[in-house]
Specification:
- The protein has about 375 residues and is an alpha/beta fold.
- It is about 40% helix and about 20% strand.
- It has ten helices and 13 strands.
- The strands form four sheets. A six-stranded mixed β-sheet has the order 8-7-6-9-12-13, with helices on both faces. Strands 3-5-4 form a three-stranded antiparallel β-sheet.
- Strand 1 and strand 2 form a beta hairpin.
- Helix 4 crosses helix 6 (about 195-210) and helix 8 packs parallel to helix 9 (about 320-335).
- It is flat, with a radius of gyration of 26 Å.
- The two termini are about 45 Å apart.
Length: about 375
């Protein structure tokens, strides 16, 4: 069912007034695409309707504390308030908790492969020294112990047969590209699909950077064309009067991944509709009705190219129309990737599970 469900606002007694207002303000800031003035205006309207502040702590107090804590700064040229880098980090962490709430960080976020040799991390496994082994890998304490056992304490002699090497594991790094559809259909018919998509992207970005620091995540948005954005821009994305150029997004993602040195690569794509345009002869060829064969074939050819390069594409389709499902299934079969048909609230869990599977798969290479 479309629309919103309302209930009476009940403050959390364990939160301070600042924490309560900050959580609400963060949501409003995402909905306003980073327009602080609009978010403040909406917060004031909510206060008038629902009395979310108190006599001892009002909106002015909240805004002053936001500035003092470094979440907002002044843009002198524009005479306005803007979010700071600290605010951007807090939005990503909030999204991580909201979307991946059950994830617990463990260890340092590294992923060991089963390939032994000259790797990145030492293990507890030991083996005899072989000519050509790195001297830095010698387990000196164990080697000295072997020398004492083999030659006696009084006649100390350390030979090649006494040396032991500490094994290492290679790190299995992953390069990922996240594609986000910002075409007009993401807000069509009054249904807000872009806000949950942004939250998922923020959560994934924060999850990878905090749990897998050696991995990379590039973010691409696409409408009539495709372009790369930074993760600090995620909370403030806006849908435009665009068609859906899926081909451009896939071409840019492939260009990004081919520049990465590691071999483990993958693409996530969040979209709610079919491809409706491509660049043809330097001009935009578009068709919003049905599945245009020229557009579809070019897009499917790109999916096939990804398969030849061994790069899976995981598609999250926010639609269940039979002809859209048929297209996604064909696209996925040609690429050899995965597809999920989900409501907006299931996206985060699906992305997390799929990312973990991809990481585990890469460890077996």
């Amino acid at each position: 069912m479309l629309g919103w469900q309302y209930r009476k606002y009940s403050p959390d007694p364990q939160k301070s007034k600042f924490e309560e207002l900050f959580s609400i303000f963060q949501e409003l800031l995402i909905y306003s695409a980073g327009e602080v003035a609009n978010a403040i205006q909406w917060l004031m309207e909510m206060d008038r309707d629902y009395e979310i502040t108190s006599d001892n702590y009002g909106i002015r107090d909240f805004l002053d504390e936001l500035a003092q804590k470094g979440y907002l700064s002044s843009d002198i040229d524009q005479n306005s308030l803007i979010p700071t880098a600290k605010m951007n980090v807090s939005l990503r962490k909030k999204a991580l908790k909201e979307v991946f709430g059950t994830i617990q960080k463990s260890g340092h976020g590294n992923h060991n492969s089963r390939i032994e040799g000259k790797g990145d991390e030492y293990t507890s496994d030991l083996r005899p020294y072989n000519f050509g082994d790195n001297v830095e890998q010698i387990a000196f304490l164990e080697s000295l112990k072997n020398a004492q056992i083999n030659h006696g304490i009084d006649n100390f002699d350390l030979g090649y047969d006494d040396l032991e090497i500490r094994e290492t594991y290679h790190q299995s790094n992953m390069s990922s590209v996240l594609l986000i559809d910002i075409s007009h259909s993401m807000i069509l018919y009054g249904e807000d699909r872009i806000t949950p998509a942004k939250k998922v992207a923020m959560a994934l970005s924060e999850y990878i950077s905090s749990h897998f620091p050696k991995d990379s995540l590039d973010i691409v948005v696409f409408g009539d064309e495709a372009w790369k954005i930074e993760k600090d821009e995620l909370p403030y994305l806006e849908v435009g009067p665009y068609h859906t150029n899926t081909l451009a997004a896939l071409e840019l993602a492939l260009d990004i991944l081919q520049k990465k040195k590691n071999t483990n690569k993958q693409v996530f794509m969040i979209t709610d509709g079919k491809p409706t345009c491509i660049k043809r002869g330097g001009k935009l060829y578009k068709n919003s009705f049905g599945l245009d064969r020229i557009i579809i074939n070019r897009t499917l050819n790109q999916a096939s190219k990804y398969r030849r390069l061994g790069i899976p594409i995981t598609t999250f389709m926010i639609a269940k129309d039979p002809y859209l499902v048929q297209f996604v299934e064909t696209f996925t079969e040609i690429n050899g990737g995965r597809a999920f048909y989900s409501d907006l609230y299931g996206l985060g869990d699906f992305i997390f599970k799929d990312y973990k599977r991809a990481k585990k798969k890469s460890q077996r290479k």
